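Practice set, problem 2.
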Amino acid sequence: MTQPGRPTGPTPETATVILTAALELLLAEGVAALSAQRLHSATGVSRSTIYRHWPTPRAVLAALIEVAPRPAISRTGEVGADLHAEVDALCDRLRDKPVGTFLHAIVAAAAWDPTMSDLRRQYVQDLLAPFNAALAPARLSSEAREDAVSEIVSPLLLDALLLDRPAARERAHRSVDAFVAQLGPQRRTAD
């Protein structure tokens, strides 16, 4: 038997309306636009509902990260080919909305609100996860895997976030080739 009263979470329809509007506001105006008042104005959903489920801009960002689609890339089992595919996918995502703009917004928000730093780390880790998966056949230590991912991805993030230019896809592909050349043949493919 269910208890009468407020539901524990928003209805799926309400969540979709709020998070769709939140993403549009974030992309157009930045994190400051994620206030309950602004979301109410954009959606017509009551402020009390918004406050109850997303009381802060940080809560809205966390919800957006949670529902962010994660593109599926089929793995070949060959480290070099899979890393090249991930470079292309990340470059495309950094170039296009919403990923590039969302990343800019969350980095800016973490600069003025330290409580958002964990969200920034989570979002970046989500962007790096496919690279870690592509490296699985190489059977590297976690430190070596982290170094390889950083070597390949850091210049792309530098371009996109700090230099405000397209990610240097060709440079990242050269980094992949240099990394794969250092691997022994037995570490380049899945068993």
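Problem 2, part (b): a different protein.
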Amino acid sequence: MSRVVVVGSLNVDLHLLLQRHITPGETLLASGGTFSPGGKGANQACAAALAGAETTMCGAIGDDASSSVATSLLEAAGVDVSHVRRVPGPTGLAVVSVDAEGENSVVVVPGANAEVSPAMVDDWADVIAGADVVVLQGEISAASNLEASRLVRGRLVVNLAPVIDVAPELLLAADPLVVNEHEGTAALAQLGGRELTDPEAVVRGLRESGVSSVVMTLGAAGALIAHGDEVVTVASPRVRAVDTVGAGDAFCGALAARLAEGESLEAASAYAARFAAYTVQFEGAQASYPPRGTGLPT
């Protein structure tokens, strides 16, 4: 079985359901209030495992009571969590607000994720070097991401989410760089590219700046894929969105799993789009991911 290693964040999500998103100075009543496992790194690891890859999670949780929530669905999905460190202090927390249209806003308190240092990453050198695909995101420090990228011997997937200032070396090592429209524009700026707004132009600009391959996710519109001279569109199945939380992470994890199996970037992205489309039909992040063997929308 191919091996995916995710170096990144683990959070506990506090889930709030709103009729509409709040404005400054306003008080709204919400439903929900439940806690569930989240964090971009953990979400991606969970998705990779459910998509069929042997998956290892490298990250940190706190020594608080909620830490067991952060790893619960990873363990259920069969992710190796033996490299998740327990550190003093709180586990990362994300407050996730979802409106009646299924659109979300997220506020993240890093907690233990802020303790993932380059020195801690070095302790994972063997497991990172042994992976077919390594996945990184923006919820641990730029320095730790850069150190992890230097240890990769297989294929590196970088998801610049949330956007943080990173060394150009990290973006140029990505194969692919996975971004949405906003993240793609920010990544291009970090590489010294000119300001662009058209998604295809941004993808082309990233390729011209030296990024080996790019996947730009466009939500219900699918994704743009580029690794040669052409930009290819990958469609997403049409589904009714209930909750988009964790859908981008689901895409990244499923993409990594299929790339680890040796699939082409286009084929892996098409599968990832179907995997992510399944998730938006249900509430939550990891809790919405399809169990192994589940039929995906087409």
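Answer key, part (b): The domain at 3-10+38-90+112-288 is CATH 3.40.1190.20 (UDP-N-acetylmuramoyl-L-alanine:D-glutamate ligase). Residues 8 and 41 are 4 Å apart (CA to CA).
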